[in-house]
Design brief:
TIM Barrel, 8-stranded parallel β-sheet, two-stranded antiparallel ribbon, 10 helices, 10 strands, binds 6-hydroxymethylpterin-diphosphate
């Protein structure tokens, strides 16, 4: 018999995140020149620190630091370049009282980041590299296993599925199994459908609508719809910052459908959207008193 899943309390270094109590907000900090929404915004480690401190004040629960863009068409960079962009800022941010996640799929970069103070790994390839799986197992940090078809360079070339929700579910469960077989503890695994990664706008909408089927796997879910281009398929041409209201709608629905962590650029606004969605879901029916 399979053991029941433990209550989702995430142990991130000295931090404890009680994922079952309320939705948690992961603030995005991109140290890239070319991210789709905020590339080039952060010029140096000090401005990364200022942005991180602002997000903490706005109610972020986790900060996700990325140094390589995964926007459609992005070219990969070397591990040395990724570390050069990442580590000085990470060392500063690690002083803040908030868990830092590293958004990388390179084990060498993840290992250096853990050394510098990161307490979580966010891997858009779903721990595809066996060395990443063994690092995750050895270090015991929580890991985000995200679903992607192909690579950022190729993923948006006519993505096809027979049944996107079933296939994403199966592929995520297979990746979780591979990780567990490599020694990653089940309670350290967070699954993410990978909004925008090898999916059409319609695929993304279906995944958001059918999120409860992914939540039913029992693994905590992370969802990242923030400012992504599927919103423009509905709303028409908008710059990434103008996609904030569309993002709020997707965040609201994702929370109502069982997402426990929401990865966003606009922490203050999405914290409010997530909080209201959660309050509506959990409001108690007032007792009528005795007759
Ligand atoms: N989306 C992006 C990057 N990393 N990680 C997870 N787990 N889930 C996501 O949806 C996700 C992710 C893309 O967004 P962003 O970091 O803003 O852009 P870029 O990759 O261009 O830096």
């Amino acid at each position: 018999m399979r053991s029941p899943l433990p209550k989702p309390i995430l142990h991130c270094g000295p931090f404890r995140l009680k994922l079952s109590l309320r939705p948690h907000i992961m603030g995005i900090i991109n140290l890239t020149p070319d991210s789709f929404s905020d590339g080039g915004l952060i010029k140096n480690p000090v401005s990364a620190y200022q942005r991180a401190a602002a997000m903490l004040k706005q109610g972020a629960d986790i900060l996700d630091l990325g140094a390589e863009s995964s926007r459609p068409g992005a070219l990969p960079i070397s591990a040395a370049e990724e570390k050069r962009r990442l580590l000085p800022a990470l060392k500063l941010l690690a002083r803040l009282p908030i868990p830092i996640s590293v958004d990388t799929s390179k084990p060498e970069v993840a290992a250096a980041a853990l050394e510098a103070g990161a307490v979580m790994i966010n891997d858009i390839t779903g721990l595809e590299d066996p060395a990443m799986r063994s690092l995750a197992a050895r270090s015991g940090v929580p890991v985000v296993i995200m679903h992607m078809r192909g690579t950022p360079r190729s993923m948006q070339r006519a993505p096809r599925y027979n049944n996107v929700v079933s296939e994403v579910r199966q592929e995520l469960l297979a990746a979780a199994r591979r990780a567990q077989n490599a020694g990653v503890k089940r309670e350290k695994i967070i699954l993410d459908p990978g909004i925008g990664f090898g999916k059409t706008a319609e695929h993304n909408l279906l995944l958001l609508r059918e999120l409860p089927r992914l939540a039913a796997t029992g693994y905590p879910l992370l969802v990242g719809p923030s400012r992504k281009s599927f919103l423009t398929a509905i709303l028409g041409p908008l710059t990434p910052p103008e996609r904030i209201w569309g993002t709020a709608a997707a965040v609201t629905l994702a929370v109502a459908h069982g997402a426990r962590i929401i990865r966003v650029h606009d922490v203050k606004e999405m914290r409010m959207a997530a909080q209201v969605a959660h309050a509506i879901q959990h409001v108690k029916i007032p007792s009528r008193g005795k007759k």
